[in-house]
Task: structure prediction
Amino acid sequence: MNPYALGIIALFVLFVVVLLARTVRIVPQARAGIVERFGKYKETLPAGLNVVVPFVDKVRYLIDLREQVVSFPPQPVITEDNLVVSIDTVIYFQVTDPIAATYEIANYIQAIEQLTMTTLRNIVGGMDLEETLTSRDQINSGLRGVLDEATGKWGIRVNRVELKGIDPPPSIKDSMEKQMRADREKRAVILTAEGQRQAAILTAEGNKQSMILNAEGDRESLILRAQANRESAILRAQGEAQAITNVFQAIHDGQPDQSLLAYQYLQMLPKIAEGDANKVWVIPSEITKALEGLGSSIGEVAGIPQKSGGVRHRVDYGSTEPAVLSGGLDNELSSTTKAVEDAIAEAEHAANPGSGRGTPDAAPADDAAGDAPAEEPPATPPTT
Result:
């Protein structure tokens, strides 16, 4: 075959391929193609397979109709209190009109960035640092309203504006940290003081209740103790009164005389010798004279007879039989008893010479009708 003919065929096939490539255009989903004919807008191609006039129509732009996210770098912004803060923003927008986005603005992304920066400076310039840090929602709403109004004629809809970060200067950060630390310490001190106050109040109330209960317990204890002491004193006084009554009744019933008082004196002599300091006790040899003086002194006491007629009511104190002693001890006791009886008789005779009992021999005569001579007189209760 002629090589010239082959070249012509190859050129024809290439022409056909180029022609088809310029005629058939495939637009992806969520995209829009802007077609120009001789440099003038002709139509917008939808997603899918489209046919254009080759070498006449040209797809100039392919516009993305999806929502786009653009993050702008931090921008320095001056607040109302003359503090410079860095704010970086994130904008969510979507192209709603491909023709306006193509022919109304040259670069809508750059335009949105510059508009965001100027609007942000305008909004933050009317706030102080504290308000800027705590008014993110207010700043976002202000930015979105201004951007949506400005970009509407560009065929762009701003859906959302977010502030990624607000960074004050390092010195301001340090001051804010100190302030925050001081505020937290203040709140901690206040909470601690309130806790201590509540604890002190509860402790005081507890002490008050405890003191009240203790006082009530002490009062009841004192009342009961006073009642017990009163009853005890009454019973003791009644007992003492009864004892004194019994003693005086026994004394009056017994009708004591001077002989009994002399005998009581002799019984008190051993008690005088008691005690650690009494090493030696000498019985006077002239006991007869002492008894005579005792009898004369007793005789002068008013109301005490020198000789009584005996007890009115005899009290039975048990067996009156004398104990039998053996040896010289029995003889010694008998001689001592005899001496005591003689001394009593002599004292009675000295006190009352006309009584008819002038000699010691009169004592056994009285004992003949009663008890034995060696019998000791019954014990008489002590007088008060």
